[in-house]
Design goal:
Shape: elongated
Largest sheet: 2 strands, antiparallel
Order of helices and strands: EEHHHHHHHHHH
Radius of gyration: 30 Å
Distance between the termini: 16 Å
Number of domains: 2
Number of helices: 10
Amino acid sequence: MSPLCPLQRPRPVPSGGDAQPLRSDSFEHLQQAYASESELPVFWTPAYVEKRLIEAAYVSDRSTKKPGPKAFGNNWPDIMMEFSEVERFEAERNAFFDERQFKPDAAAVSRADEALAWIPAYVRHPLQCDAIRLYAAGKAFGIPVEPLLANRMKRARRGMPRALLQINADREQQRRRLAAQFAAEANERMANLAKRRRRPLTAEQQAFIKADVQQRLNEACQPFLRMEKDDIRPHHALPGKCLAPATYHRMRKAAAAAIADALNFAEVPIR
């Protein structure tokens, strides 16, 4: 087991009790995140990339946060507790502070810094970035991702009417910009043609140029037509975020594979 895993540290317990492992049931998910030197693969694989990202999320959390408040300060009134509640509270608080006081070594911090730079460097798709970050954080802290995705879906469905208004406003603004651009182009074409011929254009010539520009404008505005209520989808309300478990797993695997391929191509040493 890697020295990074907090499963090896004893937990302080109230007097009269036996020492127990520090929340062993809560840290089982971290056993897969730390690989010994004998477990290093021959080349970068998606599974090992995921392990490194899980380790980076855990190490980053333990390297930056403080174990408690800076100083005492509380405006809440004191409350009466039963002795059993006090004993349980003291045990949980000691376990929490013992866990938070754990600090990774320099090698772990170096590996974490390296792994945290992979996602912005090698993953281009926003859904893949979101999925691999969710996976690493969920595995590192033992948080299930499915409830988070369900909550996201609820938020997206509630935000669909507002997203529809915003999308239509943005598309209308884009159509106005395109119309101004093509109108300036039509005026420039007519002015240049009249200058070369040294006489004003006829009505038929102006109509021909305007019809040509109008056709091209209509083609350019096709992606920016007004969206109807039936066309709006949850991903429009939360763009760049995974909402469905199937999408999450597919994007997570694609992101890990993309990172592994990039690391193998760049011949990055495995550690």
